[in-house]
Design the sequence.
């Protein structure tokens, strides 16, 4: 022990330099994404206090108005303040996406971990289910559930979770297998460390970063899907309105007031872009794992059809 | 290899069976009585005659045990007979056939374009990782992934149909009608294809045979085309087929916006109109296609690359 200690500071310094290199390289996407996403979140959290108008307050004498000092982003077809509507709409979009994401992540992580630990037939069944579910368009699953249960927040969240857990399960299974095979797990087991100690000291920290990366990447995808269903009139229902529903409402007025279409879409785009940048930044900052089987299909994050 | 293929086949059969049960149960699960739903669609707004309800229930075999009804339904479904659409009274298989053709064309054009554009972009990024071109391509693909179709599509229509008048805004008649929907649809797969091409090419370009090719004096294009791309293409092809399966039925938003009479639009309209035979047939065929394509891709991939079936823990 005493002999190896002088070497430690140098090791740490090396790691620090490595970290800085990452920050200078592709890591920039993570920082920009984090700043934009934080700004969006803070705005949405503070909306009830900072929104200039009631999002439902109509001013029929002032319909489809352009930018002005009274209405920074103009008004919509009913004279409602566009900025306020964007802020309140974003609360629906982002929170629904976040809830489905969280549900998907929790379910997927559990299934992935169980699959890896139990192995055998259960593992085979679960992973084949993942393989097949990943290929099924999530919009179709959503349409099926809506056909059966009707529209509503419950259906919306259930529909997006029903197939949304698969990437998390696949990744968590791989990570668990990989981490369990590591020498330090064996060492910890030999030393008599408790199971929970191993899980929280070794497995969780090592799995956290890739899981978070996928989580952020999926967030953007969820956001777009939720908006898409609302755009089809099957997601968030009036009088509530998210960014997708705002785009739908704006269609007839597109020519007169392009901003009614451009701005809600831009809000989805910017938010989705910021989380994608965070996700890919975190993803590329992680040391590359062995290729081979990971090349079999593209990384789980590259799947997703919302169109 | 045969064992591997047989196992996948078994999985495929189990999956198709599950999907067929789920779709069969749609009318029962949706709370309403299918007989009343059918009658209501025939005599809109009138009170239903109870004896007519029972007569139709018997005619349709809906008074039989559920398992017999399922087998009967499945038997007819396997012959392509899904009954008549509630709303248009046309045979569902006809509607399905023409919609599938339309979606196939749209998907093929969009993904073909994405593929052709992604190869040079991904290769360009992979040639000098971390340098300016790579950064630009990375940022571009990240942006493409984040673009909602229902935002891009109206903007494209506004610019190209309404202001410039170059292209039709909606419909499905001449090849011009393909351009805007295909463009909208191609954006996200283009981003993913590029990312995967880049990742594959970064790996391949490090291989000794690339150094050897360069040492033999092969020019850059020769090295890339003959050695690098050929090996780097495999992951992209896999992704391509997965996207193909996904977009055949999954391009609902784009088909609705551009009034493309494809699968996505068909199922969407059916859900809105509670046209149950179309919902059943549409979802069954979309999922069956997706599952089928995935399985075939898996088996083909294992055939080409033995490492998958030997080392992949999930086999």
Sequence:
């Amino acid at each position: 022990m005493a002999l190896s200690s002088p070497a430690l500071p140098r090791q740490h310094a090396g790691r620090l330099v490595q970290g800085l290199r990452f920050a200078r390289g592709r890591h920039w996407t993570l920082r920009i994404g984090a700043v934009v996403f934080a700004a969006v979140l803070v705005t949405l959290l503070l909306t009830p206090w900072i929104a200039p108008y009631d999002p439902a307050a109509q001013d029929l004498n002032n319909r489809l108005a352009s930018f002005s000092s009274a209405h920074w982003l103009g008004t919509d077809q009913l004279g409602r303040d566009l900025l306020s509507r964007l802020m309140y709409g974003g609360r629906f979009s982002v929170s629904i996406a976040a809830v489905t994401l969280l549900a998907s992540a929790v379910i997927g992580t559990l299934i992935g971990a169980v699959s890896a630990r139990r192995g055998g037939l259960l593992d085979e069944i679960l992973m084949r289910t993942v393989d097949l579910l990943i290929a099924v368009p999530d919009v179709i699953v959503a349409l099926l559930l809506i056909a059966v249960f009707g529209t509503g927040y419950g259906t919306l969240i259930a529909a997006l979770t029903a197939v949304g857990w698969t990437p998390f399960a696949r990744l968590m299974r791989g990570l668990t297998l990989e981490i369990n095979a590591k020498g330090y797990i064996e060492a910890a087991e030999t030393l008599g460390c408790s199971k929970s100690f191993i899980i929280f000291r070794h497995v969780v920290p090592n799995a956290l970063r890739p899981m978070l990366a996928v989580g952020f990447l999926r967030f953007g995808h969820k956001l777009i899907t939720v908006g898409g269903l609302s755009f089809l009139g099957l997601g968030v229902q009036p009088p509530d309105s998210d960014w997708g529903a705002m785009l739908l409402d704006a269609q007839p007025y597109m020519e007169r007031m392009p901003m009614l279409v451009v701005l809600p879409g831009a809000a989805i785009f910017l938010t989705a872009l910021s989380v994608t940048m965070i996700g890919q930044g975190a993803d590329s900052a992680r040391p590359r794992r062995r290729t081979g089987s990971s090349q079999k299909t593209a990384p789980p994050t590259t799947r997703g059809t919302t169109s | 290899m045969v064992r591997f293929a047989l196992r996948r086949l078994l999985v495929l059969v189990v999956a198709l069976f599950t999907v067929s049960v789920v779709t069969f149960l749609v009318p029962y699960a949706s709370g309403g009585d299918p007989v009343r739903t059918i009658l209501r669609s025939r005599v809109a707004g009138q009170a239903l005659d109870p004896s007519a309800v029972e007569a139709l229930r018997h005619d349709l075999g809906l008074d039989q045990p559920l398992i017999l009804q399922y087998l009967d339904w499945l038997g007819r479904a396997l012959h392509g007979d899904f009954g008549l659409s509630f709303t248009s009274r046309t045979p569902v298989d006809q509607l399905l056939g023409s919609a599938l053709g339309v979606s196939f064309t749209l998907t093929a054009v969009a993904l073909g374009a994405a593929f052709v554009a992604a190869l040079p972009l991904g290769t360009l990024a992979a040639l000098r990782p971390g340098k300016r071109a790579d950064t630009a391509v990375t940022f571009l693909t990240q942006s493409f992934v984040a673009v909602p179709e229902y935002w891009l599509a109206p903007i494209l229509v506004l610019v190209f149909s309404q202001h410039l008048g170059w292209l039709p805004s909606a419909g499905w008649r001449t090849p011009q009608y393909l351009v805007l929907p295909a463009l909208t649809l191609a954006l996200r797969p283009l981003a993913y294809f590029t990312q995967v091409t880049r990742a594959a090419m970064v790996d391949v370009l490090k291989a000794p045979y690339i150094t050897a090719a360069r040492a033999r004096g092969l020019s850059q294009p020769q090295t890339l085309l003959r050695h690098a791309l050929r090996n780097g293409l495999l992951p992209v092809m896999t992704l391509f087929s997965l996207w193909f399966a996904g977009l055949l039925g999954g391009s609902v938003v784009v088909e609705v916006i551009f009034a493309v009479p494809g699968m996505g639009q068909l199922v969407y309209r059916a859900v809105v109109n509670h046209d149950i035979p179309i919902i059943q047939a549409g979802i069954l065929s979309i999922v069956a296609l997706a599952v089928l394509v995935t399985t075939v891709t898996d088996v083909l991939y294992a055939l080409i690359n033995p490492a998958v079936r030997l080392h992949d823990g999930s086999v």
Q: What stands out?
A: Chain B has a mean pLDDT of 82. DSSP finds 14 helices and no strands in chain B.
